[in-house]
Amino acid sequence: MRMTSPSRALLLGVAASALLSGAATAQTATPPPQTATVDDVIVTGAPYGISQRATTIATDVIDQQALSTSPAVSLGDLVSNRPGIRSTDFAPGASRPVIRGLSGPRVQVLTNGIGLIDASSVSPDHAVATDPAEASRIEIIRGPATLVYGGSAIGGVVNVIDDRIPTKIPEGGLSGVVSTQVSSVDDGRSGFGRVTVGSGHFAFNLDGVKRKTSDYDIPSPAISARKAEADGIDRGPGGTQPNSYTDLTAWGVGGSYITDKGYIGASYKDTDSEYGTVAEENVFIKLNQERYDVRGEYRFDDGPFSALRGSYGHAKYTHTEFEDVGEPGTIFNSDGWEGRADLVQRERNGWNGAVGVQGLSRNFQAIGEEAFVPTVDIDELGVYTVQRLDRAHYGFEGGLRYDRRELSATPIGGVSQVNREFNNWSASVAGFLRPAPGLFLGLSLAHNERAPSEVELFAEGVHIATAAYETGDLNLNSEKVNTLEGTVHYDRGRFTGDLHIYHSWYNGFIDERATGAEYLYEGEEFPIFQFVQTDARFYGFELEGAYALWESGDRKLSLEGAADFVHAQTDLGPAARIPPYSVTGRLAWTSTPFDASVEVRHVGEQDRVANAYELPTDDYTLLNLAAAWRPLTDHNVTIFAEARNLTNEEAREHVSFLKDIAPMAGRNLRVGVAYRF
Q1: pTM
Q2: Strands 468-471 and 524-552, how do they pair?
Q3: The predicted structure's pLDDT at residue 72
Q4: pLDDT tens, residue by residue, 557-593
Q5: pLDDT at 32
Q6: Nearest CA to 77 among 99, 61, 92, 58?
């Protein structure tokens, strides 16, 4: 049954109440003050916001200042060096985050808390329909500890937060950022600008990004030594990575009506992207998405709830794969909406909480000779609550969520429509202590359930991007996982640190396994892979720390470090494409006018592979330098430079399907300037 009548009406009714209420007349345009700075409060894990050093959820934040000088790369590549996170590294135009060894439908990529409604989780060569340059802030949740986003967040969440719909009147009536940069490894050029103007109760935003790169330089032949030996082929020349160019243009506009009771706003965004697939030398992809969003908040003066928030997004996405003759091949379309509404409880004696509803309806189409997934209609509805009691020295948090997911399709080669409905429950509970100043200890237990994706259920055909014939299973059940996680935050004196240790037990883990058979397509043999269910265990840790070696006034010299590790084993053997351990060390100088750092990052060898088609990967060590100079006393202008992979090391990302035909980029010098006002 399509989610058109009761489900959609419920969701839109609650969301509309939040949005319309935000337009109430009031006296000022200044929202109430927050209890912590913006950069210290995580809003992705809980609607009421939690200080980053007071949550049992494993989090990362990239703020606006860091984003304005960050590399002009796709989302997966931007976050890939953080503990527990890697990139699918399929190509510069298409990379998606991998969190604790999980990717695809297990990792939710959001924009302002709403799904992208694209096709990026269907295949690793599909780009994410948002660019980091658009963000004012990116929040990352590692692991399944949040119930706010449902089963598709069983591995984690990456939330790209932008200011396209303003929530406050800018100070002085005007604010914004302009940045531009160039890079040597790919002849890259990029620029981004955002401006927000406001007066009285109204604020308007305009932003745009343009990025263009050529094929990037590589420090070795594209073919790895292991693949050349296994296939009995020559590695070929080095130089540049064929068909790795990118060309992205995105722009958006938004506006809000803002009062001291809340706001209501709307926005429009258009994204056009063209990029080489790398997997096939003469194939490129053109992507377009048009997206409309409405968002609002109403703050109550009294009563049990402090605020009602609502958001709604509708997007139309088209992704076309072109052959070298310029003729369109396979076309992927995604058209749908997603919305959510949250009632945030008023804080009472350390008690915070929220109840919410979330829903989506999406039509996905794959058209063409190489379409390996049929047209699918997907409907979801979820209701949830999250609660937290925070006393001075101890506290508890937890939540409960129910999800219904419906998928309808006529399988490839079939004659009748197949409908699958999944009803899932997820829950979490956690406790924490503050036994000493600056020390936070937490322990959480989470149970999460995920419905199979459209690919896992309905795939049937050659998938060029993964070099396999993929076969889904219409009889798959929901994937279930129990996760135990321990958390330590320490922040006192010269030392700060974070440690997360986790162990996950999967019941019905959906895995893709080689059958041993092969399929002949256009004269080439493709191994046949089948989606199956098995039990699995994932365990590992993420560690970060910083020690102030010397500081005086605004000047500080720090020694920073990070490490991560994940081990994944199923009843059928090692899980596929699990990242090896990594260790990073950094010596950093910070001051008002000048910052500089030298970094050494070592990624280990990975020889635990799932099958004969997944080759081991050698370890590598990268040397990176970075500097930023603020020549003006108001600090608004930053001139920055970065040198990555100074030794021109051959490095291959093990989680990538392309690791044996596409190494990571070679030595790169990046320079740019950013102006914030």
Answers
A1: 0.91
A2: parallel
A3: 87
A4: 999 999 999 999 999 999 999 999 999 999 999 999 9
A5: 33
A6: 92
Band of residue 40 on the pLDDT scale cut at 50, 70, 90: low
Token match 């080439």: residue?
A: 524
- CA geometry: angle at 401 spanning 96 and 510, to 5°? 45
Gap between the Cα atoms of 360 and 381, Å rounded: 7
Structural contact between residues 557 and 549, judged by C-beta atoms closer than 8 angstroms:
yes
Which amino acid does the sequence have at 485?
E
Cβ-contact 354, 46 below 8 angstroms: yes
**pLDDT value for 165:** 97
Please count the CA atoms within 13 angstroms of the CA of 498 that sit on its side-chain side.
18
SS3 510: strand
Q: Which residues of 363-384 are buried (b: 16+ CB within 10 A; e: fewer)?
A: ebbbeeeebbbbbbbbbbbbbb
- What is the CA angle 617-620-624, rounded to 5? 145
Please give, one letter per residue, the 3-state secondary structure of 51-118.
EHHHCCCEEEEECHHHHHCCCCCCHHHHHCCCCCEEECCCECCECCEEECCECHHHEEEEECCEECCC
Look up tokens 């330089």; give the residue. Answer: 217
CB 428 within 8 A of CB 445: yes
Strand partners, 252: 207, 269
Task: Tell me what the mean pLDDT of segment 346-361 comes to.
Answer: 95
Mean pLDDT, residues 515-522: 91
Average pLDDT over residues 17-41: 38
Read off the pLDDT of residues 288-337 as tens digits, 9 standing for 90 and up.
Answer: 999 999 999 999 999 999 999 999 999 999 999 898 767 788 899 999 99
Beta bridge partners of 26: none
Please give the Cα distance from 67 to 135 (Å, whole number).
7
Residue 222 in this model has a pLDDT that exceeds 80: yes
The gap between the terminal CA atoms of the chain, to the nearest Å, is 51
Sign, CA torsion 143/146/152/156: negative
The 3-state secondary structure of 165-193 reads CCCCCCHHHEEEEEEEEEECCCCEEEEEE
674 vs 65: CA distance, rounded Å:
9
573 φ/ψ sector (left φ>0, alpha ψ -120 to 50, else beta): left
Tokens of 435: 């036994």
Instruction: Extract the tokens encoding 553.
Output: 């006034």
Helix (H, G, I), strand (E, B) or coil at 640: strand
Token representation of residue 291: 């997206």
What is the spatial distance between Cα 197 and Cα 175, in angstroms, rounded to a whole number? 7
Strand-pair category, 156-161 with 107-111: parallel
- Picking from 644, 668, 672, 636, the residue whose alpha carbon sits closest to that of residue 176 is 636
Using the predicted structure, report yes or no on whether residue 264 has a pLDDT greater than 70: yes
What are 196-216's pLDDT values in tens digits?
999 999 999 999 999 999 999
The pLDDT of residue 145 is 62
Cα separation, 311 vs 551, in Å, equals 44
The alpha carbon of 23 is separated from its chain's Cα centroid by a whole number of angstroms, namely 32
pLDDT at 272: 96
Q: How many helices (H) and strands (E) does the chain have?
A: 5, 36
Cβ–Cβ contacts within 10 Å for residue 83, how many?
21
Distance CA 383, CA 641 (A): 46
Q: How far apart are CA 538 and CA 253, in angstroms?
A: 43
